[in-house]
Specification:
mainly alpha, 4 helices, flat
Length: 100
């Protein structure tokens, strides 16, 4: 890293360091063990969503359909490419008992 780059990114670096410090303090306050249990559950849910839900999700335009366009309301997304395949995500949450 050059001095010029460090100078140009000093505010981003300061924000990054402050956010990391705040997260560390919050995790310490909650308890690292408790946090890690929840983090592992989150990571498991994300992996299950990727492996189970992603292949069956119909985006407006996606690689699984060879780029075929699905007009608004014909895919599995609420609006555009947002809120896609919520039914599957709800199933995953229920299976992992995190649907509260």
């Amino acid at each position: 890293e050059s001095e010029r780059w460090k100078h140009r990114t000093r505010w981003e670096t300061a924000l990054y360091k402050a956010a990391n410090r705040s997260l560390d303090l919050t995790i310490d306050y909650l308890g690292r063990k408790k946090f890690n249990v929840k983090l592992n559950l989150f990571q498991e849910a994300m992996e299950r969503a990727r492996t189970v839900c992603l292949p069956e999700t119909v985006f407006p335009c996606n690689k699984f359909d060879n780029g075929v366009f699905h007009p608004e309301g014909t895919g599995s997304c609420w609006v555009g490419d947002s809120g896609c395949n919520m039914e599957c995500l709800d199933r995953v949450a229920k299976e992992l008992n995190i649907d509260r």
